Amino acid sequence: MTIRVNGVAVSEQDWPSPQMAAIHELLRQRAMGLGWLDENATRQEIEQAIERVLTEEVPVPGVDEAACRRYYAQHLQRYQSGELVFARHILFQIVSGVPVAAVRAIAEAMLAELRTRPELFAERARSHSNCPSGELGGELGQLQRGTTAPEFEQALFGNTVLGILPQLIKTRFGFHIVAVDQRVPGEQLPFEQVSERVAEDLCRDAEARALSLYVRVLAGHAELQGVQLDVTALPLMQ
User: Fold this and answer.
1) Cα–Cα distance measured from residue 27 to residue 33, given in angstroms and rounded to the nearest whole number
2) Which ranges of 129-190 would DSSP assign to H, the alpha helix?
3) Domain ranges of the chain
4) Element of type H or E holding 209
5) Rounded Cα gap, residues 204 and 60, in angstroms
6) Under the phi-then-psi rule, with left for phi > 0, alpha for psi from -120 to 50, and beta for the rest, what region is 198?
7) pLDDT of amino acid 237
8) How many other β-carbons are positioned within 10 Å of the β-carbon of residue 49?
9) Which of 54, 88, 99, 189 could form a disulfide with 138 if both were Cys (CB 3.0 to 4.6 A apart)?
10) Contacts 24+ apart (CB under 8 A), 2-11
11) What CA–CA distance (Å, rounded) separates 77 from 83?
12) Topology at the third CATH level for domain 82-188
C-alpha cells in the first residue's frame, strides 16, 4: 500500500522503515508551511530546512546539576570503567541503488532463523555478512564503550541480555544482527568524574523526547495512509 502524508505519496526506498519516511515528509511539509522551503527544493535544501525546523521549533529543556545527579543515579551502569562486551555480528550493508526495505526484510528473516537456531550464526556470518569480521564468523572480540557507533553501543551496553539480541540494530553502516557472548562488569565511576558526560547524555535523551512529542503533534493534525507512525524511530533522525 502506498504511503501518503496529507495526500502526498512518499517513497520508502531510501529509508530503513515506512515510519521514518513518513516522519521525514511530515517535517518537510512543516518547513514548507513555515515558508522556509519551496516545492521544487533540492534534497540539500530540504535537509537544511528540516534542520531549521528541529532547531527552532523543538525546544530542549536545559539541565542543572540536580537533574544530572538524578539521571546518573538512574543509569549507573552507563558510567563504569573497564566494562566489556564480547560480541559477534552480521552486517547487511545499505548501498546505493538497493531498496532499504528489501535489505531489512532479508535481515529480519535471518534474525528470526538465528533466534531459533543460534548454532548457525557463524555460518551465516561467513556467507552473508558485509563486514570483514564475517570471515571470522562475525567475531568482534571485546568491545568497550566509545569504540562503536552510538546506536550499536546503546544496543550492546544498554541492557544485560546474553545471546542473540531480539531486534536488528540500525546504524549508518546498515542493519546488524548481534550476538552477545559475554559481559564483564566494570567499576563504578563517581559522578564528579563523569559529570560532563552525564550532562551530554541527559541533553541527548531530552532532545529525543522533545522530538518525539513534536512529531506526535504534527501527526495528530495530519492525514496518514499506509503507515502506522512509530515515534520510537525518531532518534535515528538526529
Assistant:
1) 10
2) 150-157
3) 3-62+194-237, 82-188
4) helix 191-220
5) 9
6) alpha
7) 42
8) 21
9) 88
10) 2/225, 2/226, 3/225, 3/226, 3/227, 4/223, 4/224, 4/225, 4/226, 5/29, 5/222, 5/223, 5/224, 6/222, 6/223, 7/223
11) 9
12) Chitinase A; domain 3 (3.10.50)
Using a 10 angstrom Cβ sphere, with 0-12 exposed, 13-18 middle and 19 or more buried, the burial of residue 177 is buried
Q: Which residues of the chain form beta strands (DSSP E)?
A: 3-5, 8-10, 80-81, 84-93, 139-143, 163-164, 169-171, 174-184, 187-188, 224-225
In which residue are the cell numbers 513534536 written? 214
How many secondary structure helices (H) and strands (E) does the chain include? 7, 10
Q: Is 140 helix (H, G, I), strand (E, B) or coil?
A: strand
Distance, in Å, from the CA atom of 157 to the CA atom of 4, rounded to the nearest integer, reads 37
> For 160, phi and psi rounded to 5 degrees?
-120, 20
Q: Is the dihedral of CA 29, 210, 199, 77 positive or negative?
A: negative
Q: What is the pLDDT along the chain (238 residues), one digit of tens a residue?
A: 688 999 999 987 777 678 888 899 999 999 999 999 998 899 899 999 999 999 999 888 788 999 999 999 998 878 888 789 999 999 999 877 777 888 888 999 999 999 999 999 999 999 999 999 999 999 999 998 878 888 898 888 888 899 999 999 998 889 999 999 999 988 899 999 999 989 998 998 888 888 888 988 898 889 999 887 755 444 444 3
Inter-helix orientation angle 121-128/100-116, to 10°:
160
